[in-house]
Amino acid sequence: MTGYFLQAFIYLVAAVIAVPIAKRLGLGSVLGYLIAGVVIGPIIGLVGEETTTIQHFAEFGVVMMLFLVGLELEPKMLWNMRHKLIGLGGIQVGGTAAAVMGIALVFGQTWSIALTIGLIFALSSTAIVLQTFHEKGLAKTEGGQSSFSVLLFQDIAVIPMLAFIPLLAIPELVEQAQNAVEHAADHHEELSLVAGLPGWAYGLVITASIAVVVVGGHYLSRPLFRFVASSGLREIFTATALMLVIGIAALMSLVGLSPALGTFLAGVVLANSEFRHELESNIDPFKGLLLGLFFITVGAGINFGILFNDFFVIIGLTLGVMLLKAAVLYGLAIIFKIRDSARWLFTLSLAQAGEFGFVLLSFSVQNHVLPNDIAQTLSLVVALSMFLTPGLFILFDKVILPRYEKESNDREADTVDERGTVMIAGMGRFGQIVNRLLVANDVKTVALDVRADQVDNMRQIGTKAFFGDASKPDILHTAGIEEAKLLVVAIDNQEASIELVKYVKHTYPHVKILTRAFDRGHGYQLKQAGADYIESETYHSALELGAKTMNCLGFHPFFVEQQKATYKSIEDKQSDRLYEGWKGGAEGERFDNNYRDLFIELEGLIRDAMQIDRNDKHSRERGWTPPPKGYADKFEE
């Protein structure tokens, strides 16, 4: 027992130290786990022969991952994504597998081994790519969404791969395994419900097992979860979720199918269940720990002797696989018209092999499809390609993206062939709302944005916008600023917005300027520059959310509206005093002690006014009152 505690402690210490460091360095959690395994295994030697046994246990984390993937894939969502999912994802997996298989055949491998290698390298790292997209804010970009479609297809494709690979078993390897079993002291036989059954009976059992998962998941899971949830014990719900996953995995194993196949299918069936999010929250920690343990064992199992003996061969294989995948992906990006920097993001983000490659390698060895020596070499190639992935994202950020941004900025400004009463500078989320409201009320607008891709996106959805930098005087002139009555400044750059307000107010004093402010300080600078009306981008939304919070806490809606009106009235009355206090501060010390005193005084006024309303039920600062009692009665029939 002491030995188990020590081994568990070693694995946990390695994860606790390595993963946060890897995350801080931008390498991702998966690489952190791999590095931790390399350190405690080949480098220090704290773990040894038990690694393989632990890996078999940790592979259950993959089963849980596929259950969670299934939960995210509502049938309706899959149907809506079918074109890009099947087209882009299907061609990528098929094309990459075929290309890798062809090269493996050239190097003398048998067709079954070559096909297995092709399937393994057709997959990319879902964990690394999606985590990096999330950290860098790339998930909503064209390249990010295209990459997600491919990753989603790859995750789904793992299921048929797991079912297909055992059919490629090499007779010689099967015979060797059988001989090893015969000579070993085998104390038990693996349980099976299909051993010795004729083909027709085996087919019936498989069909019945899948039907049990689908029908039972649809009709029996909800009553079960309601019954368990009625107990009010969270740990029992967790136990039920684990029971469901383990039970389905066991059923699939008993009938000779992949446990991952069954749990994935169950996840899809439960995707529309009202208990989906509760299932995710209960399963996810176990999945994370087991997958982390799996990646650590992969790192610990890397044979550095093989790496150093065939160093140039393995490095060459790694770079060759990544270049081949990148070529296939780049070709697909051209075919599917993924443009500019998004094309390179799509290409580079998916050029590595993935964590499911380790799963398929282990699975292939267990099912006598790949010889162990080839599997060890391929495992090094998969791991090294994942280690190199952060470098590809750095290449995209530092080299490729700046070049396309420069080309975008060098693009000539559009010729503005329209004139409008209102000119809008900036078509981000703020400017779009303003423009949409005005256009819907038949107000002629001229919208400018410095981001060419944003302008193109607006045109694709039928919104007229022009490419041009509104902060440049010549662009403003050609866009017709002289004929405009109003200018709405909604650009993201704070300094540029201030300079734009200064220039327009000085050169075209007849133009009224309305602008958004990022915060109070930015608002003061805009006011000093001459803006006629300034709106903080978060003020109203924050006030509405605060009021909604009071409603949820049980405050009467009339009272909440009164408090909102009081808050806004005091803010409006004190804003000029705060501005004068800010303006009177020394340059570089705008928020000095005098301003802070005024701000504290404002907070006190708001608090006192709120207490007056609560205690006296009358407000001296009221901009809203409820209708009189019985007001609604006159409208009743």
Low-confidence stretches: 180-188, 617-623
- Order the strands across the largest sheet as they lie in space: 3-2-1-4-5-6
Tell me the major beta sheet.
6 strands, parallel
The 3D shape can be described as: globular
Number of strands: 6
What is the SS-derived class?
Answer: mainly alpha
Per DSSP, the total helix count is 28
Q: Tell me the strand percentage band.
A: under 5%
Task: Estimate the helix proportion, in percent.
Answer: 55-70%
Based on CA atoms alone, the radius of gyration comes out at 32 Å
- Determine the mean pLDDT: 79
First-residue to last-residue Cα separation: 80 Å
Give me a quick take on this structure:
The chain has 637 residues and is mainly alpha-helical.
